[in-house]
Amino acid sequence: MSTAIPTKTISAIKFEDLNWIASSPLPRDQAQSNRLHEPEYRINTIDPMTGNDIENVTSHPSLEDGNLTVYFETIDTRKSYLEMPLDHPNLHLPYPAADDDDRGG
Predict the structure, then answer these.
(1) Is 60 exceeded by the pLDDT of residue 16?
(2) Residue 71, C-beta contacts closer than 8 angstroms, at least 6 positions apart
(3) Cβ–Cβ contacts within 10 Å for residue 47, how many?
């Protein structure tokens, strides 16, 4: 049987106050991050041609495009992906696309 007396700690921040305001932000929170929700590097382990998940990527072909690496099940699916024609809306416009045409959606 323990004879220790429980101690009550007093919190420096009282969250129960209705108008509680954080008055001392951490140094990392004093400025907005420029990389918010922007991953540095992305890896796709789902073959875009078959839709199958690749568990062990060490022996599978891949394709690097900027900061994205896409893995394929076979060399044939990688080849068919590369030979697939580009179907971008800007290629079908009756007029040249301008920078302000992008609505960010």
Answers:
(1) yes
(2) 43, 44, 45, 47, 54, 57, 60, 61, 62
(3) 20
Single-letter amino acid, residue 36: L
pLDDT beyond 50 at 32: yes
pTM over the 0.90 mark: no
42 Cβ contact list (under 8 Å, min separation 6)? 67, 68, 69
Q: Write down the pLDDT at residue 78.
A: 94
Asked whether 72 and 62 are in contact (CB, 8 A), the reply is yes
Half-sphere exposure of 39 (CA within 13 A, CB side): 8
Q: What is the DSSP letter of 65?
A: E
Please tell me what DSSP assigns to residue 43.
Answer: E
> Is the Cβ–Cβ distance between 78 and 61 less than 8 Å?
yes
- Please name the helix (run of DSSP H) or strand (run of DSSP E) that holds residue 71, with its range, or none: strand 68-71
Q: Provide mean pLDDT across the span 61-66.
A: 91
Residue type, 75: I
Pairing of strands 42-44, 68-71: parallel
